[in-house]
Design brief:
Layout (H helix, E strand, L loop, with lengths): L7 H7 L15 E5 L2 E4 H9 L9 H24 L6 H27 L2 H13 L4 E11 L2 H12 L4 H8 L3 H6 L2 E6 L5 H7 L12 E3 L2 E13 L4 H26 L20
Antiparallel strand pairs: 1-2, 3-4, 3-6, 5-6
Helix pairs in contact: 1-10, 2-3, 4-10, 5-10
């Protein structure tokens, strides 16, 4: 284990491997068989939770990849068992190391579960929401062109009655614009480059910019088709992220406490005490 609270970052990652609750047979279907050995959906869920970068991704989006991973793991396991590798010295040594890691994991997990109850997560959520003002968003279409003269010609076409969507499909340099008639969807101001955002948020639904807007990407003609105020994320949407934040804080406190209450002596690589100069 790392010396000092920074070891918490390693241990916090271990908490991503959540305990999977027992599932009824009809809620835990077989998702594959490998030489007669069943793989259940609960194994997929566990694998998903063990991979940090997939933590917030719906299982359906990583289903095929994780399923193939579990199938491959089962095939390798079969070969290892056929060769009775559980008696191999390398296996026994690695198992001993893993035992220490699992013991640390279980200790930290139980401490965090006790220190971070549901009420603490809810309290942090309520605090966060109270400090998070609702965001205004606009529904945008835009046309991107290379120069100001072309942009002015596009505006002239719009004034003559050409639809914004048709003009975007015909003339926009933005590949997305050609496919969707320039639609970017609902966007908050902080997600846009300043020049674009300033111009867009001055428009009312149905209006478009009467003069071209210049940014680092080129010249834009922007149309706003709607406005809305987005509600804050729900408790269920926020719960996992908040729990991980609280767990990280708690782990750092736990490790600091353990260090404070322990008698620790550190030595240099040559075995001499820290602060002592080696004789020679």
């Amino acid at each position: 284990m790392s010396h000092g609270p920074k070891g918490a970052f390693v241990l916090a990652a271990l908490l991503m491997t959540a305990t999977i609750p027992a599932l009824a047979a009809d809620a835990d279907p077989v998702v594959a068989t490998v030489n007669g050995k069943e793989i259940h959906r609960s194994a997929l869920i566990k694998a998903q939770k063990s991979i940090a970068q997939h933590g917030e991704v719906p299982l359906e989006k990583v289903y095929d990849r994780l399923l193939e991973q579990l199938i491959t793991e089962q095939l390798v396991l079969e070969q290892a068992e056929k060769q009775k590798l559980e008696n191999d010295p390398q296996f026994k040594a690695e198992l001993a190391d893993m035992r220490l890691q699992v013991l640390q994991h279980v200790y930290i997990t139980k401490r965090v579960d006790a220190d971070v109850p549901e009420s603490a997560i809810r309290h942090r959520y309520d605090e966060t929401i109270a400090l998070t003002p609702p965001k205004e968003q606009v529904l945008i279409r835009h046309i991107l062109v290379a120069d100001e003269a072309t942009a002015k010609a596009v505006i002239a076409d719009l004034k003559s009655g050409v639809s914004f969507e048709d003009e975007a499909k015909a003339k926009s340099l933005d590949p997305t614009g050609k496919a969707t008639g320039g639609e970017l969807g609902y966007v908050s101001k902080d997600k846009l480059v300043p020049e674009f955002g300033d111009a867009a948020f001055k428009l009312q639904p149905g209006e478009y910019t009467q003069t071209p807007v210049h940014s680092q990407y080129g010249w834009h003609i922007i149309k706003v088709e709607g406005r809305r105020t987005t509600p804050p994320p729900s408790y269920e949407e926020s719960k996992t992220k908040i729990k991980m934040e609280l767990a990280q804080d708690d782990i750092e406190k736990i490790l600091a406490e353990l260090h404070k209450n322990a008698q620790i002596k550190r030595y240099k690589l040559d075995g001499s005490p820290m602060g002592d100069k080696p004789k020679g």
